[in-house]
Specification:
Largest sheet: 4 strands, antiparallel
Distance between the termini: 20 Å
Number of domains: 2
Shape: elongated
Radius of gyration: 20 Å
């Protein structure tokens, strides 16, 4: 298996996601402790028990989406392979529809991957079809175009 993208941006993005998640959650917890008067303990407990779990779940969802936005992409004769949560997902060459150029990233538009990739397509690729984020480097885009043209039946 050969690697398509260098994976330089993805580790920096993943590190930024982790640090922002820690900072946001710590900030919200400190705000909840500071904002409410200790004498109004019942109000504090209601807000802490209702608001904070929703805030954590929202942050985990956003962190998960950003974490998997630009996966490491490998290719071989079967198709493209990406890894999500240590699980290999094979995208056959036949299921690749097109490569879209975005503002910050290029996207591979496919027929079927996972529901998470359909969310990427809606948010970033402006399509209801599943998308995979790829580096916006022209060399990688050209190499991907050539690979798709060579291996499509």
């Amino acid at each position: 298996m050969n690697r398509l993208n260098p994976g330089i941006v993805a580790p920096a993005l993943k590190g930024a996601v982790i640090l922002s998640e820690i900072a946001i959650n710590a900030g919200v917890l400190l705000f909840l402790i500071w904002a409410f008067d200790p004498s109004a303990l019942d109000l504090y407990l209601i807000n802490a028990l209702c608001f904070y779990p929703l805030w954590i779940s929202y942050n985990l969802l956003v962190g998960y989406l950003l974490w998997n936005l630009m996966p490491n992409i490998y290719y071989d004769s079967d198709g493209l392979s990406i890894y999500m949560i240590r699980q290999r997902i094979l995208i056959p060459w036949d299921s690749i529809i097109t490569i879209k150029k975005g503002m910050l990233l290029d996207f591979i538009v496919c027929r079927k991957i996972t529901p998470v990739h359909r969310i990427y397509g809606i948010l970033f690729g402006w399509t209801i079809l599943p998308c995979i984020g790829v580096s916006s480097d022209p060399k990688i885009r050209d190499k991907l175009y050539l690979l798709v043209q060579e291996n499509k039946v």
